Amino acid sequence: MRRSVSLKHVRLNFRPPVNAFTGHAAHSLKLIRNSTRQAIADVFDHLDYKRLESVYCYEGGDEFWRKKREPCRRLGIMVAEVLVQKLPHGGRSLYVGAGVMELPALIAETIELQRQVAPYNLRRSEVAVLNRATRSLPIKFRAQDAASAAGLFDHLWIVSVLNDPERFPHLAPLSYGRADPVTFNPERFQKERRLVQSIVDRCMPKLRLPGLVTTSSEEAIWIADWCHRHKIPYRVERKQYPTALVEDPICFVRIGVRKFKSSKVGK
């Protein structure tokens, strides 16, 4: 388990993750309705997995979806059950880089909480597939920059965006402790770090405070960095939740709640 990641002067220390889907925590969840589960299943059944193969894989896409389809749906529902307990009815959620993994949460928000959701994804081919599968629901994916979304949101979802190894080939290995000291290029890393910070700088102001951020355990450091730079209190919740399509578990970050002490940092 990667326990901490350094960024400039900020060091965010995570406690060991709690498996939130076993033991007492699992029994305390408020389960989503069967009709919502069926809506999620229907959308997964209508996805064009053949077209999604090239989006998620260079090769072996057919085998990939045979293995990942059901875990993606099942673990996605588990995360959705946690999320609907944390959000109010009738709010707005901005999803940055939303894809197949985000479908259960998007559907649960709209059906269980009657919330407005704004999912953004720059991959046009995937957006077309997702919009066809969700055409019976009040969900519309947009092939645009999420920073262009209008208005404010009380929930921001940003998972596997800031540490994408394809988009950030020099930053991601360092984040995961896998950087090769022989081939590591500090100049390219600095360029990618500025780009990641610019994404955060353009998306975080969309969050109405106090608000909730859903992100991965490895990306939470970028949210913490933004909060430190803007002197906004935050709290990274201890529990983490596994996902099927990405390596990192999901966590929740409370932003702008004064009664919470921000996570400890060290120089």
Protein model, in words:
The structure is a single chain. The chain is of the alpha/beta class. It has one domain (4-255): Rossmann fold, CATH 3.40.50. It contains nine helices and ten strands. The chain has helices at residues 23-27, 34-46, 49-56, 61-86, 103-112, 124-133, 171-175, 186-203, 220-229, and strands at residues 4-7, 10-13, 18-19, 92-96, 116-120, 153-158, 207-216, 234-236, 239-240, 250-255. Strands 5-4-6-7-10-8 form a six-stranded mixed sheet, with helices on both faces. Helix 5 (103-112) links the parallel strand 4 and strand 5 (116-120). Helix 2 (34-46) packs antiparallel against helix 5 (103-112) and helix 3 (49-56) packs across helix 4 (61-86). The radius of gyration is 18 Å and the shape is globular. Mean pLDDT is 85; it is low at 1-17, 21-28 and 260-267.
